[in-house]
Amino acid sequence: MEYMAAGLPVVATSVGGTKELVKPNRGGYLVPPDEPGKFANAIGKIMGDDQLRLEMGKFNYNYINNNFLLDRMINKYEMVFDSTKIG
Length: 87
Known about the structure:
By secondary structure, this protein is mainly alpha-helical. It has helices at 2-5, 18-21, 36-47, 50-67, 70-83, and strands at residues 10-13, 28-31. It is elongated and about 55 Å long. The protein starts with a helix and ends with a helix. The model has no long low-confidence stretch (mean pLDDT 92).
């Protein structure tokens, strides 16, 4: 998440919460955890294409800033809590 907020593309394994955070082919690549060759290929693809790297980085920066900054998270929680009020 920190790399994404810094405007960088991400190559990560598809485990845990990473699957929900990284948007494949838009902000980076998700690869199976037991396939290091695919991991290396994904890194190589990003490193070899300046335009792709910039586009993915920009996507990640916007995605994090539009969805996960503290004030936005607070607002989203408030909306959820407000929607559950009875009466």
